[in-house]
Specification:
Helix content is 32%, strand content 30%. The chain is α+β, with helices and mostly antiparallel strands. Strands 1-2-3-4-5-7-6 form a 7-stranded mixed β-sheet.
Length: 157
């Protein structure tokens, strides 16, 4: 990546900005406005979740271009969010955020990260070394057989 990228901890006052990024990224896959609205709560990190969970943003020239959030409160540590603004996709920002997340978890001695992936994002995670461990039904209008891949990514060498 040739862009000057800076990864820093998210601030709780950025919750609305992060929700906008998640919405824009999810919308870039062609989901309907009605479907996006149905997913609004899941696409919206809360002020409390930012305070409670490791949440980091990627900035380019001081502008937030993407973020991730890890949920440490679940039995198996989960990736709650990884989103990059559409205009910054395919520039290595998502990879940089995932490398940061992996290092964060490795520093904590956490060996695996569970990922409930959108079907469109699965190739990205597989390219980073994640493996599919299952799938769950996730039907939407027009796609009654839609499945969400369940992935696991090792964080320790």
């Amino acid at each position: 990546m040739s862009l000057p990228l800076h990864i820093r901890a998210a601030r709780s006052d950025e919750a609305a900005l992060l929700a906008d990024i998640a919405w824009a990224a999810k919308a870039s896959w062609g989901y309907s406005d009605d479907q996006l609205e149905a997913w609004r709560d899941g696409l919206t990190p809360s002020v409390e979740s930012i305070r409670r969970n490791p949440t980091y943003v990627a900035e380019i020239d001081g502008v937030v271009a993407g973020f991730y959030q890890i949920n440490l409160a679940t039995r198996l540590v989960e990736l709650d969010h990884l989103w990059v603004l559409p205009e910054h996709m395919c520039k290595g920002i998502g990879q940089a955020l995932m490398r940061h997340a992996i290092a964060e978890l490795a520093d904590r001695g956490i060996a695996h990260l569970c990922i409930d992936s959108d079907p469109n994002a699965e190739p990205f995670y597989l390219a980073l070394g994640a493996v599919r461990i299952g799938e769950c039904a996730a039907p939407i209008a027009g796609e009654p057989q839609r499945m969400r891949p369940q992935l696991r990514l090792s964080t320790l060498p």
